[in-house]
Amino acid sequence: MLQYGALSETAKLPTNDYRHRLKRSRPAELYNFNFEPFTEKKLWPDGIVSYRFDSEYPLGWMRDRVLQAFDLIQKLSCIRFQLVNENYKGSFVRLTNGDLCSSQVGRLTDIQEGQVLSLPAWCLRRPEGK
């Protein structure tokens, strides 16, 4: 899995041939490159992405950095972010302080605990001196 911040400007993305060799050399359940096709259900209704921070997500500069990114995305696109509380029943993104910078692509509709968006500190490039 590629990780944000792990690529240099000269790094190359894996080719299909590389993926094929990887699948043949490792157990199939570890590497699933058969993603669900893009459909309308993967879009967030009206471009509004509902989100909330996991209760364990640190306060301070990490949350500030995420909110700054949301603001930038809102300024440059038609996507909007809406903070929801723990009683919210619809689809939402749950920001966690996991081990990797990762998330599924598009909206997942069958996850009651929220679609995990893992953003640990190293993923957010903590500013010097803070």
From TrEMBL:
InterPro entries to which the protein is assigned, alphabetical: MetalloPept_cat_dom_sf, Peptidase_M12A
Keywords: Disulfide bond
Residue intervals of the Peptidase M12A domain: 34-130
GO biological process: proteolysis
Pfam families the record matches: Astacin
GO molecular function: metalloendopeptidase activity
Disulfide linkage: C101-C123
Coiled-coil segments: none
Annotated protein name in UniProt: Peptidase M12A domain-containing protein
Organism listed in the record: Plectus sambesii
